[in-house]
Amino acid sequence: MKRIVSIFLCSLFAVIQVYGQQYSATLEGNKKEGYYQFKIPSGIRSVIGNDISKIRIRDNGGQEVPFVKFVYASAGDKFIPLTIVKREIIADSVTTLVIKNIKLETWTSISLRIANSNSSKRYTLTGSNDSVNWFSLSENQLLENLAGSDQTFNDQEITFPLNNYRYLKIMIRDKGSSPINVLEAGRYESVMTAATYQPVHAVKFDMKSEKKNSILHVMLPDFQIIDYVSLSVADPKLYQRKVSVLANQLVQVKRNRWEDQLVEIGQYELSPANTHMIVPSLFVKDFYIQIENLDSPPLRIDSLSLGQTALNIVTNLAAGKQYSIVIDSAYKAPDYDLSLFKNKANDQLPVLTVSKLKSIKPGSGDIKNEAWKKTFGNILLWGGMVIAIIVICYFAIGFLKDVNKK
Predict the structure, then answer these.
(1) Signal sequence span per UniProt (predicted)?
(2) Which of 5, 240, 283, 395 sits 20 to 30 Å CA-CA off 85?
(3) Which of 171, 188, 205 is the last residue of a domain?
């Protein structure tokens, strides 16, 4: 009995410690009243990743200040056509399109360029690596609003779960109606450069070459969001190599069992004209880059740089008042009146600086954290109830044993 209670109390204490870990950083530069912008630094990103629901802005009296995430317009979006390897129309039945993912890129969407139509259609999307065995990605989805206002076509985005199947098959139902005219399929890619990304510092890597492959192990001091990888290749001067990015992820191996496994995140092609990779956002402390050398000599890599898409925040502050960013994993998404910021968020706003992140204790200092008080109270309440139930059950079982002996 003592052992059970001790284990429970230790667990409870550990939970309290976890919930009690909070962080803060001060905002500086609000010399006059008005709207300001700032980038969330990598030190805070190592705690929250891309989840801004875990942060609050508070004044020195503990009052919350609303904020909104602001996304800069990219340098431009370019429509990249994809290869349609099969196009079949069966009258009064179905239109089938098979699209080839030549570079085995990781996708979550494609766009269909459709000639203007007032129709709406249902479609099914499947994926395959051999164009023989097909696996479901999405079922009974709707294509609608197919008429463009200023062009003779309209681009319809089709979204689906993250995958890198070699082939995607779209089957559009035409039963009882004429088919729509799909002109081409493609993907919109943002025209972005290294300057678009916020640099990630203190990056280390080591490289090993064996069995016609080179493996780079990229290491960081803390977890960070990684969206961009760039390699500086010193030698040879001419090369063209297939590259895979791999990271450890939890994979379900059985119904109730998960394992940490090395998973391929995406495939890329490395050449002197293209030495960078845009990866799906990874929140990792380390990951791997596999370079396929075949019979060519390994690349000599001088340096490696990482970047993350900036999280830009816009808020309204009073002149000269002290404000802090508070980070707590117990926070839920705030419900602010974001319409107040609708016409104020732009990249011309004055910029605030963010101080170095520091750890704080719940309820201490000048930051009053009501969320912590409520969470802590709930932990104590439920913890006490569970201990009481364990104690009652223990004595009840002992009493029944004594009765049975008599």
Answers:
(1) 1-20
(2) 240
(3) 188
35 exposure class (CB count in 10 Å sphere: 0-12, 13-18, 19+): middle
Which bin fits 45, alpha (ψ -120 to 50), beta or left (φ > 0)?
alpha
| Whether 41 and 96 share a structural domain | no
- Reported pTM: 0.58
**Residue 45 tokens, joined:** 């990103």
Instruction: Return d(Cα 198, Cα 212) in angstroms, integer.
Output: 34
Cis upstream peptide for 280 (omega within 30°): no
In contact, 379 and 19? CB cutoff 8 Å:
yes
Q: Are residues 57 and 86 in the same domain?
A: no
Count how many domains the chain has: 2
Is 80 exceeded by the pLDDT of residue 379?
A: no
Here the CATH number for the domain that contains residue 104 is 2.60.120.260
- Strands (E) in 236-296, as ranges, are 241-254, 257-270, 276-292
